[in-house]
Design brief:
Blueprint (H helix, E strand, L loop, with lengths): L4 E2 L8 E4 L6 E3 L2 E7 L21 E4 L5 E9 L7 E9 L2 E9 L4 E9 L1 E2 L2 E5 L4 E9 L2 E7 L6 E6 L4 H5 L2 E7 L5 E12 L11
Antiparallel strand pairs: 1-2, 2-5, 3-4, 4-16, 5-15, 6-12, 6-16, 7-8, 7-15, 8-9, 9-10, 9-11, 12-13, 13-14
């Protein structure tokens, strides 16, 4: 595991690298990272093991209180299930992903919530290789949203994760994956952090 840490000017907390080497770099307002071949973070629901089948590079930090983390995600799609991800982790058995993913032939907004084993759900297909993603926390509830322009948001999912204490201490950040391919480069820009939750997760704001 990498011991790399990165301070982004947009975020009031440091980010630490977890998992395989992700070649994380920040310059000119953009964070870049790369997943290696066959790297993913997923615990198959049909399996007995509670360990991920593989692991993926991620860059995570722990904000205080309610928040919104927003980024425009651009993915160098090359193989099925390549994805750029906003990630959330409460502990080793409780974590979630909001993905812009090639699933398997068209770019799609997908989510995974893992409570021991992972679930997996496709939300909607999008055009192109970039889209805006948002993770928010209000109390112990997390919400996933996606947007073509960073202005009008489509509700994707609301859930909680782990115990109440774990939910309010969860780490949030960025992940790159390439489960079936030879690697995948991801760029995150227009990064915004807001130290507040959402008044209404379903009103498009």
């Amino acid at each position: 595991m990498s011991d790399q840490t990165i301070d982004l000017p947009e975020l009031p907390f440091p980010l630490r690298a977890y998992g395989p080497e992700g070649a994380w770099r920040y310059a000119d307002g953009a964070l870049t990272g790369r997943a290696g071949a066959r790297q993913d973070r997923f615990v198959p629901p049909s399996g007995a093991s509670l360990e991920p089948a593989s692991d993926a590079p991620r860059l995570l930090g722990a904000p205080d209180g309610d928040f919104q983390l927003i980024a425009r995600v651009r993915v160098g799609f090359a193989a099925a299930f390549d994805a750029g991800v906003l990630a959330l982790e409460a502990d080793a058995q409780h974590w979630a992903k909001l993905c812009l993913e090639l699933s398997p032939e068209r770019p799609t907004i997908c989510t995974v919530v893992t409570r021991g084993h992972s679930d997996d759900a496709n939300s909607f297909v999008v055009d192109g290789d970039s889209y805006w993603l948002r993770i928010s926390r209000t109390g112990r509830a997390f919400a996933f949203h996606a947007s073509p322009d960073g202005e009008r948001w489509t509700f994707v999912r609301v859930f909680t994760l782990g115990t109440p204490e774990q939910a309010v201490a969860a780490r949030v950040g960025f992940l790159a994956q390439s489960p079936t391919g030879e690697g995948c480069a991801v760029t995150y820009d227009r990064i915004v952090f807001r130290p507040e939750g959402l008044a209404d997760a379903r009103d498009g704001s």
